[in-house]
Amino acid sequence: MDLNTKLSGLDQFLTVIYGSGTTIESLLITLGFDAGQASRLREKHLPALADGLIEAIRKRLTWEEKDPGFRILVRRFGLDGEPPAALDAAAQGLHIDSSYAFYAEGEALQRCRSKTALQDFKKELHRLALAELLHDGEKPRKELVVQKLERLADLRAAVDVARMDYEAKRAEILRKVQSELDAIEAEFQPVLEGAELNASALEAEIKNDVLLRGESLRGGAYRAVYMKGRVSWDSQGINEYARDHPEVLQFRKEGQPSVTLRIAAGSPDGGHDSKGQ
Questions:
Q1: Which one, out of 189, 214, 223, 233, has a CA that is 20 to 30 A from the CA of 173?
Q2: Helical ranges in 31-97 per DSSP H
Q3: CA–CA gap between residue 140 and residue 273 (Å, rounded)
Q4: Taking the mean position of all CA atoms in its chain, how far away is CA 12?
């Protein structure tokens, strides 16, 4: 098994699902790691990141312990460190029919290109990278983080200035055409309100009919989807129950921590919040 082959194959796979030029390193930059952190990850932790990301891909494509699509992708891109293989060769090596291998590869790539999958892969890479950096034990210097916060305040202030200029110029243009816009609104507003009222009333009738029938129906371009009531759990009650029955905690999942940036009290800046994973 060759590490460079695996890393190269994974980068090719990421390019296929995310778009041209996407690599593990480019994703790390988009995930908010600075140049120094990205360099440490590249020099010391790239193999571990690659293995973790490939495992995330495997889990995404495995259903009831069956993963033919994943095994095809492994051979096609060389994710196992062996030279990448053509589809027919990969199918033959895995003892899979060529036509089925073609279908399995296409379906696997489609599942990996879904919006949810693309977001989950990034989240997993972010989690892995943070874990590796935390394992190093080298935390960002406090003064460096403070400097970044000060730079952020300057950048946000510049954005506010640009936005105010935009709003001023936009308002100036709107004033010139406002009378025409008012005339058009006066002409069409009653028509729009009447049409919307009729449509809303019919929607309400349809919803009641579907609720009474208890089934989804389709007509023309619309489909009325019947959904049973959502089941929810009393979190406080479950936590209290878990104190006496700790075995239920195996079903508890906790998400990744996040950081929210807020304007400090007394700051002259506007109200910008930025939440990151």
A1: 189
A2: 35-40, 46-61, 68-77, 87-93
A3: 22
A4: 20
Dist. CA 41–CA 135, nearest whole Å: 12
pLDDT at 269: 56
By DSSP bridging, strand 274-276 and strand 259-261 are antiparallel
Q: How far apart are CA 96 and CA 68, in angstroms?
A: 9
Question: pLDDT tens for residues 237-263?
Answer: 888 898 888 888 888 777 777 777 677
Q: Helices marked H in 78-230 — which ranges?
A: 87-93, 98-113, 115-136, 142-213
Q: List pLDDT tens digits, range 18-77.
A: 999 999 999 999 999 988 899 999 999 999 999 999 999 999 999 877 889 999 999 999
Task: Show the tokens assigned to 196.
Answer: 């919307």
Task: Report which of 52, 50, 57, 56 is spatially closest to residue 108, judged by C-alpha positions.
Answer: 57
In this structure, the strands spanning 259-261 and 217-219 are unpaired
Q: What angle do CA 176, 177, 182 make, to 5 degrees?
A: 130
**What does the pLDDT look like over 95-151, one tens digit per residue?**
999 999 999 999 999 999 999 999 999 999 999 999 999 998 888 889 999 999 999
* pTM flag (> 0.70): no
Q: Choose among 58, 75, 76: nearest CA to 67.
A: 58
- Single out the residue of 175, 178, 198 nearest to residue 186, CA to CA: 178
CA 46-15-29 angle, 5° bins: 50
Rounded Cα distance between 206 and 197, Å, is 14
